[in-house]
Design brief:
It is built from three helices and no strands. The protein is elongated. By secondary structure, the chain is mainly α. It starts with 21 loop residues before the first helix and ends with a helix. The protein has a domain of 40 residues.
């Protein structure tokens, strides 16, 4: 039987706000990214991976 994994809000990936990168990237770039991202609002993405965390990259590159 396949191992069940938690998805969505229960994932362990850290989250950050794009505003945190403003001092590093600059106002123009962050403003442009926010404008482009507005078109993606309410879009849902389903990422399916063979392993719960990482893995698969070496197989894709070989």
């Amino acid at each position: 039987m396949l191992e069940q994994i938690k998805i969505g809000r229960y994932c362990c990936a850290p989250s950050t706000q794009i505003e945190n990168f403003r001092p590093l990237a600059g106002d123009d770039l962050i403003d442009e990214l926010l404008e482009l991202a507005a078109d993606l609002r309410d879009i849902r993405i389903c990422h399916i991976n063979a392993t719960p965390f990482g893995g698969g990259v070496a197989e894709l590159l070989s």
